[in-house]
């Protein structure tokens, strides 16, 4: 019996650990090495596995590539196979953020229509390390430094402890020809600059273990975040006397969550906004209302934080 190539075995084991016992699973596949290797592994180890590919319409030939991915999936025995076409134009944020938002909306919609219990995403350990570096560069707090979660809602990332090199080796061993997205090497995108220059420079300076160490740091911070969020949820009060008694870490999480409940868009709600809310509690000297994203204003009135017209 032929020996299974190590990279193929690594990815199959990673997928096997997270697959639900029952129900349809969809693999989100762009045709790149990461998601292609993931789809092949899921098809091998899973009972009911389909595939969804998203055409963002941002590059010439994108529709044809989506059709090629769908044809491969059908031939490989994945079912159902779905092609989702989205429009990125007019969405807020930069092109990366707009495309990501449109993609997740499409994946959610596809999963709902198909009755899928999970959608597998092909992000690897290298992607996680890049995410942490980007978060450090923009001065993110623990939420940003925790990177991408292994599981959030219906989305599952089985490969966060798998090296990107292994997905390429797996594709080669299985005779799969992944698509090389030109955006991944385009210096116009911050992640591409981190991938092509910043992270390789760190590896050269600090050794190859830096990628795994960055990813592990994200995992450790995520665990701390989960506990802090739990404590903040149990103490969700906007009475100034209650807030003043909380530690700074818990208080700011309570304020962040409260701002989201008021309707502030999460992507625009920054450390600066939460710090201004915190100042209403800890540095009160009669200042006016805090302006939050989404046209929301918050003031301190009679010892309570309130939304004002």
TrEMBL record:
Residues 239-305 form the tRNA(Ile)-lysidine synthase substrate-binding domain. Residues 25-195 form the tRNA(Ile)-lysidine/2-thiocytidine synthase N-terminal domain. It is found in: Cytoplasm. InterPro entries: Rossmann-like_a/b/a_fold, TilS/TtcA_N, tRNA_Ile_lys_synt, tRNA_Ile_lys_synt_N, tRNA_Ile_lys_synt_subst-bd. GO terms for molecular function: tRNA(Ile)-lysidine synthase activity. ATP binds at residues 30-35. It comes from the Bacteria. Its main location: cytoplasm. It catalyses: cytidine(34) in tRNA(Ile2) + L-lysine + ATP = lysidine(34) in tRNA(Ile2) + AMP + diphosphate + H(+). Its EC number is 6.3.4.19. Coiled coil: none annotated. Keywords: ATP-binding, Cytoplasm, Ligase, Nucleotide-binding, tRNA processing. Ligates lysine onto the cytidine present at position 34 of the AUA codon-specific tRNA(Ile) that contains the anticodon CAU, in an ATP-dependent manner. Cytidine is converted to lysidine, thus changing the amino acid specificity of the tRNA from methionine to isoleucine. The N-terminal region contains the highly conserved SGGXDS motif, predicted to be a P-loop motif involved in ATP binding. Belongs to the tRNA(Ile)-lysidine synthase family. This is tRNA(Ile)-lysidine synthase. The gene is tilS.
